[in-house]
Specification:
Layout: E1 7-12, H1 19-35, E2 39-44, H2 50-55, E3 60-63, H3 74-82, H4 91-98, H5 100-109, E4 117-120, H6 126-133, E5 137-140, E6 151-153, H7 159-167, E7 173-177, E8 181-191, E9 196-197, E10 201-204, H8 212-217, E11 222-224, H9 231-247, E12 251-261, E13 266-272, H10 282-289, H11 294-303, H12 310-313
Parallel strand pairs: 1-2, 1-3
Antiparallel strand pairs: 4-7, 5-6, 5-7, 8-9, 8-10, 8-12, 10-11, 12-13
Helix pairs in contact: 1-11
Main location: cytoplasm
InterPro entries: ATP-grasp (IPR011761), ATP_grasp_subdomain_1 (IPR013815), D-Ala_lig_Van_CS (IPR000291), D_ala_D_ala (IPR005905), Dala_Dala_lig_C (IPR011095), Dala_Dala_lig_N (IPR011127), PreATP-grasp_dom_sf (IPR016185)
Catalytic activity: 2 D-alanine + ATP = D-alanyl-D-alanine + ADP + phosphate + H(+)
C-alpha cells in the first residue's frame, strides 16, 4: 500500500567541505523517490536560505547534507523550529556523532572499543601525543568527514605538518592510534530497540588509502558485501554497530566505521548520521545485500522522518 508523504524536500548541497558529495547524494535520492511516485523536490541548502525553505511548505524533508551545517545538528535545530519533520538523527545525536572526540568519549563510557586518542588544540602537545599513541598514528579534524584533512603520520617529523593540515578545517585536531588491519563499515537503520544492522561491508582501497578519490571518484576500490568474516565475528561487529548507534542516540539511519585489527578485534572509528547515497555509497550497498533496493531504502528512511523535539514540546 502506497503512503502519501505530501510535498517532500530533498535537502542537498550545503556549504561544507563535502558539498560535491552531497550534490550527488541528493540527486540520487530525488530520482529514487520520484520513481516511487513521491512528490519530491531538490532544495540546495548552499544556495537558498532558511526563510526560503519555510516558504516551500514541505510536509517532510530528506536530509542529504554531509558535514557541517547539515549533519552536525544545526540544520536539525532549524527544522525543529520550523516544525518540519526530517530524516535521521535529532539535534543532540547529530552533534555528538559529528564530533569524533565526543563520540569516542561516549563509547568509552559504554565500554565499546575505540582506538586510543588525544585531542590537540595546541601544536605544543604534538610530541606528547606521539609519545602516548606511538607511530604510525592518524591526525584528523574532529568535525569533518569523507577523509577531509586526514593524514597518516609514520614519522615524528611529519606530525606538525599533519596537525597544520587538520587545523585548516577545524579548531582542534584528533590524534588517534593507528589500527593496522581490515577496514569495515556497517549501515544501521531504525531507532532504539528496533535499530538493526545491515550486512558488514569490507573496503579494500589501493594501498590501503581510502581517501576522497577512492571513496567517490575511482573504480579501483573493492567492496565485499557481506564481508568474509564468519558468522560469529560478523554478528559481533553488527551488534557493536547498533550499540554505538544507540549510545549516541541516533535514529533513522547511519553508518558505523570500523577497523578490524590483525588479532580479530574490531575498533569503532566514527558514526555517520547522514551517510552518502551516491552510486559508490555503502548504505545502499548494504541494503541491496539485505534484499532492499535503493529506491525502497530511500522510502524507508523517508517514512521515519519526524520532529524529535516538537513532538514532546506540544504536549506540555
Amino acid at each position: 500500500m502506497s503512503v502519501d508523504f505530501g510535498r517532500v524536500g530533498v535537502l542537498y548541497g550545503g556549504k561544507s567541505a563535502e558539498r560535491e558529495v552531497s550534490l550527488m547524494s541528493g540527486q540520487g535520492v530525488h530520482e529514487a523517490l520520484r520513481s516511487k511516485g513521491i512528490d519530491a523536490h531538490l532544495f540546495d541548502m548552499g544556495a537558498e536560505t532558511l526563510s526560503s525553505l519555510a516558504e516551500q511548505k514541505f510536509d517532510r524533508v530528506f536530509i542529504n547534507l554531509h558535514g557541517r551545517f547539515g549533519e552536525d545538528g544545526t540544520l536539525q535545530g532549524a527544522l525543529e523550529w520550523l516544525g518540519i519533520p526530517y530524516t535521521g538523527s535529532g539535534v543532540m545525536a547529530s552533534s555528538l556523532a559529528m564530533d569524533k572526540v565526543m563520540s569516542k568519549r561516549i563509547w568509552q563510557q559504554h565500554g565499546l572499543p575505540t582506538p586510543d586518542f588525544v585531542e590537540l588544540r595546541d601544536a605544543a602537545l604534538i610530541a606528547a601525543s606521539v609519545e602516548q599513541l606511538g607511530l604510525p598514528l592518524i591526525m584528523k579534524p574532529p568535525h569533518e568527514g569523507s577523509t577531509v584533512g586526514v593524514t597518516r603520520v609514520d614519522l615524528a617529523e611529519q606530525a606538525e605538518a599533519a596537525f597544520t593540515t587538520a587545523m585548516h578545517y577545524d579548531t582542534s585536531v584528533l590524534a588517534e592510534q593507528f589500527i593496522r588491519g581490515r577496514e569495515l563499515t556497517v549501515p544501521v537503520l531504525g531507532a532504539g530497540e528496533q535499530a538493526r544492522a545491515l550486512p558488514v561491508i569490507e573496503i579494500v582501497a589501493p594501498g590501503g588509502n581510502y581517501d576522497f578519490e577512492h571513496k567517490y571518484l575511482s573504480d579501483a576500490t573493492q567492496y565485499f558485501c557481506p564481508a568474509a568474516l564468519g558468522d560469529e565475528l560478523s554478528e559481533q561487529i553488527r551488534r557493536l554497530a547498533v550499540q554505538a548507534y544507540v549510545a549516541l542516540g541516533c535514529e533513522g539511519w547511519g553508518r558505523a566505521d570500523f577497523m578490524l585489527d590483525e588479532q580479530g578485534q574490531p575498533w569503532l572509528l566514527e558514526m555517520n548520521t547522514s551517510p552518502g547515497m551516491t552510486s559508490h555509497s555503502l548504505v545502499p550497498m548494504g541494503a541491496k545485500a539485505d534484499g532492499l533496493s535503493y529506491a525502497d531504502l530511500c522510502v524507508e528512511i523517508l517514512a521515519s522522518a519526524r520532529c524529535k523535539v516538537q513532538a514532546i514540546a506540544r504536549t506540555v
